[in-house]
Amino acid sequence: MPELKNDTFLRALMREPVAYTPLWMMRQAGRYLPEYNQTRAQAGSFMGLAQNPDYACEVTLQPLRRFDLDAAILFSDILTVPDAMGLGLQFVAGEGPRFERPLRDEAAIQALRVPDMDRLRYVFDAVSLIRRELAGAVPLIGFSGSPWTLACYMVEGSGSADYRQIKTLLYQRPDLLHRILSVNAQAVQTYLNAQIQAGAQAVMLFDSWGGVLADGLFQQFSLAYTRQVLDGLVRERDGRRVPVIVFTKGGGQWIEDIAATGCDAVGLDWTANLAAARRRVGDRVALQGNLDPMTLFGGEAAIRAEVRRVLADFGRVGAGGHVFNLGHGISQFTPPEAVSVLVDEVHAASRAYHEA
Ligand code: CP3
After folding, report:
1. Which parts of the sequence bind substrate (predicted)?
2. CB 121 within 8 A of CB 195
């Protein structure tokens, strides 16, 4: 494998000195890019795109051709794992993901198993192909859903407004939910290790729905299983550390607990203040975030001002580490020109915060 030409992202995650703050965006490959929509139309469906390594590689690289981003993220979805468990993933146009066979009774939960990783071969093949095509330009991020966030979809069967099904299980039969979560933790650990084996240079756990849990229950039903995943992850490959980012949407209040899982970086949504977060965890971990994705609808002056505010909140980087990102995924309605402004401002305005 060729040497990395731009390792700013990995260095920032390791809290090593860099000249500017690196940047990538959650959902950077997606529907706001016309070229993505064109490739998706060719593939016929979202899963057609994700399951074909050539298409997956193509859409992974699309945002990097347009913008000077400091990392690539594997094009896939967190729901590939429950799909491989046999739940029957479908993407209904305009409705989002849906499982044909959600976990709704004890027998289905008892029958749940860690899937054969051969069923996810297309993901690992995409990782290897993307690494080859990147040719060392920037690092490649692998990812998975957290055990809790996957369980939400597996029990609800789709996105949910109130999480009624999974919370009924949590309060009525916590033993059954713990069984799902421990199968998920094993599956996610094996899945991420296979991505690292295939060439992922950093990995991120998306705990998108951790923030819907009550304090105390978050630690028990989400964080404990994230920690189990991390405890068995391969953390070094080809003589270089493979950093781990844990992103919990709505998790700002638990930042000390999240940092204590052993992750290298904590991802924060836009409701958290980076200065306050840094005061609480010090420089024990890097922080990733946290511009409100809707800022990208505010026009050039607003984008530049909000970027400068986020950079100023993190402050002089010193012995810390900051990776710039949105606080959640980019909206499909975002004008691509807004992203050019974002990238320009982050790279230019951040330099002052890295001077000795
Ligand atoms: O970030 C990237 O560019 C990499 C690709 C990526 C996708 N999904 C592609 C995708 C990643 C990292 C994800 C993660 C994911 N998927 C999460 C965690 C991140 C988060 O947003 O909190 C979640 C919760 C999912 C589940 C999921 N997949 C939903 C809810 C949807 C529908 C969303 C929508 O906007 O319609 C998807 C589909 C999906 N995954 C799309 C993309 C680009 C859009 C589908 C399409 O092209 O038709």
Report:
1. 27-31, 77, 153, 208, 328
2. no
Residue nearest to atom 25 of ligand 1 (CA): 78
Annotated binding-site residue? 31: yes
Domain match, 300 and 175 both = no
Range of the domain at 121: 31-62+86-234
Q: Is 30 annotated as a binding residue?
A: yes
Q: What residue's CA is closest to ligand 1, atom 24? A: 208
Which residue in the list 11, 15, 27, 227 is annotated as catalytic? Answer: 27
Query: What is the predicted pLDDT for the residue at 48?
Result: 94
Residues 215, 127 within the same domain? yes
Does residue 306 sit within a domain? yes
DSSP character at residue 241: E
Atom of ligand 1 minimally distant from the CA of 96: 32
Complex ipTM tops 0.85: yes
Contact 216, 231 (CB under 8 A): no
In order, the DSSP letters of 261-293 are TT-SEEE--TTS-HHHHHHHHTTSSEEEEEE-G
- How many domains does the chain contain in total? 2
**153 labeled part of a ligand binding site:** yes
Instruction: Name, in order, each residue with C-beta under 8 angstroms of 46's C-beta and a sequence gap of 6 or more.
Output: 40, 77, 91
Residue 110, number of CB atoms within 10 A of its CB: 10
From ligand 1's centre to the CA of 29, what distance in Å? Answer: 9
Q: Which domain CATH number covers 112?
A: 3.20.20.210
Say how many Å lie between the CA of residue 50 and the centre of ligand 1. Answer: 11
Among protein residues, the one whose CA lies closest to atom 48 of ligand 1: 46
* Residues 211 and 173 sit within 8 Å (Cβ to Cβ): no
pLDDT tens, residue by residue, 314-356: 999 999 999 999 999 999 999 999 999 999 999 999 999 999 7
